[in-house]
Structures are given as structure tokens and as C-alpha cells.
Amino acid sequence: MISKIGVIGAGQMGTGISHVCALAGFEVRLTDVSQDVLDKGMGVIGHNMTRQVRRGLISDEDKAAGLGRIHPAVGMEQFGDCDLVVEAATEDEKVKRQILSDLCPHLSPECVLASNTSSISITRLGASTDRPGKFIGMHFMNPVPLMKLVELIRGIATNEDTYQLTRVVVEKLEKTSVPSEDFPAFIVNRILMPMINEAVYTLYEGVGSVEAIDNAMRLGANHPMGPLELADFVGLDTVLAIMQVLYEGLADSKYRPCPLLVKYVEAGWLGRKTGRGFYDYAGETPVPTR
Ligand SMILES: NC(=O)c1ccc[n+]([C@@H]2O[C@H](COP(=O)([O-])OP(=O)(O)OC[C@H]3O[C@@H](n4cnc5c(N)ncnc54)[C@H](O)[C@@H]3O)[C@@H](O)[C@H]2O)c1
């Protein structure tokens, strides 16, 4: 039985995963690189739970109990009694490998380890741990409290018990899991990220403006968000990292990241999280930056 879940990374995804796990009754241990980032992350979780209270989705008591179940602290020592740890740090294989190697010595032998990576090989990440059989991809979608899907990705060594255990956790979170084979970017991002990258090419080549491209896809393809708006929401660094994994992993030029996307990331224009990407978020309503 799973009762304690560890979460590594208190960014967009780590806060969302902690939020839903705590509301589902799990004790959550949350870490990041500094107390400052953790404080900010806890602020985000509190804010998002308040929004759920306002909408009548949870009660004030649920919120208080949920927040009380999340224990933020810097360092890996706190994960010793966890049954499951989900790594949700920056989409960079080197960073994730370092985290996994720092983390493993602190885990109990029974602990299952999952990565929320959007694109990196689960087989390769698993092989860098002391428990490839108990390593799996648990790919939550953003924003986690709203999105119903979790992709479950088995590496070549992942055992059946690990898959079944994470499948049950997903059910307890009232979400739906979809199994995906371990190929670069799995199912959702294999399809979604090339579309976003193509939207950036459409902008780069002057086919349409930011507003025209987003309106075209919202109204013409019935997408709830335009692709550039969505890119800003995901984080342009994450979009670029996923395209690089697709480009290198599948060795096909159709996945070449758009040079304009590279330029935005080099400028530090990462989308909503830095206040500027394809849109500027300083004012009341987002304004296109080109
Ligand atoms: N953004 C999305 O839409 C989305 C969706 C699904 C999955 N993901 C995946 O989730 C993961 C996190 O993405 P995000 O959007 O939350 O990114 P983010 O930039 O919002 O957060 C990443 C967090 O990881 C922390 N971090 C970096 N190195 C660390 C370390 N050594 N120890 C502890 N924490 C560390 C950073 O300080 C940061 O707070 C990535 O693997 C990403 O691909 C993202």
C-alpha cells in the first residue's frame, strides 16, 4: 500500500503533483534546490487550492488538510520512508541523472521511483538507478489538478508490479492512465510538440502573426488554446528540450527545433514562468511580443 509520496521539483509540475496527491490523502514530501523555491511552490499550491474552494470543488477543510499533508524540505534524506518518489525536476537528462544518483542511497529497497519526464528515455534513466525494475515514467499533464491523463511508460526493465502500483495510484488520484511504449516523447508530446514547433515555424516564416496563428488554431481546429499560447504555458525551455530529444532520438529532420524557438530560450523568454515568451504577461491581458 502506498501512503507516502515524494516529489522532486517544486516547479509547475511538482507543485501540481503534490497538490493532487495531498488532496487524495497521501502524505507528500516535496523538495527543490532552495527554501525560497519551496516557499514559492507552497504559495502556488495554496493559491490553486483556494481557487478550487471558490469553485466549490473542495471545502476549506479539504484545503487545510491537503496543505497539512505536504512537507517541503531541502535535501534527499526525507525520502527514506516514501513508498513512491516522483521526480519532476527540469527537463535535462544530466540534471535528472544527478538527482537520481543522489536520491537512491536514501530510499528504502521497496520504494518505487517514477519520472515525470516529458520525453527522456525511461529505460536510460532507469538504468542509471539501483532499481531499474522499480523505475517507471509517470507523465502527468499540465495543469495537473485539471488534466485527467497520466501516461505510464514502462522502460525495458520495468516490472509488472511497478506498473500495477502506479496504475492504482493514478486511479486514486481520479485520473486515467494510458500506457505508452518507451519511445522519445511517448504519445502526447510526440504528437503535440511537433505541432507547436510547426506553429513557431509558421511565425518565423511570416505566414501569420502570433494572434493570427493562435486564433486560427482556436477557431479553425477547435483547440482550447492556440499553439503559441500553449507553448508559453508549457515553458519554451521545456518545448525546446522535448524537440531536441525527438530530433536526436528519432534522427529525423522533421523534428528540427525552429531557430526562433531556440532564440527565445537563449533570450530567457521562457513563457509565462518568466513573464515573457510569445506573449508579454506584464499587463492585465497578454500582448504578443512580435
Ligand atoms: N510544463 C509542462 O507542461 C510539463 C508537462 C508534463 C511534464 N513536464 C515535465 O515535468 C518536469 C518539470 O517541468 P516543469 O514544467 O515543472 O518545470 P519548472 O521549470 O517549472 O520546474 C522545474 C523545477 O525543478 C527544480 N530543480 C532543478 N534541479 C533540481 C534539483 N537538482 N533538485 C531539486 N529540484 C530541482 C527547479 O528549481 C524547478 O523548480 C520536466 O521533466 C518536464 O518535462 C512538464
From TrEMBL:
Ranges for domain 3-hydroxyacyl-CoA dehydrogenase C-terminal: 186-281
Domain 3-hydroxyacyl-CoA dehydrogenase NAD binding: 4-182
GO biological process, one term: fatty acid metabolic process
Annotated site (Important for catalytic activity): 139
Entry keyword Cytoplasm: no
GO molecular function, one term: 3-hydroxybutyryl-CoA dehydrogenase activity
InterPro entries per record: 3-OHacyl-CoA_DH, 3-OHacyl-CoA_DH_CS, 3-OHacyl-CoA_DH_NAD-bd, 3HC_DH_C, 6-PGluconate_DH-like_C_sf, 6PGD_dom2, NAD(P)-bd_dom_sf
Protein name: 3-hydroxybutyryl-CoA dehydrogenase
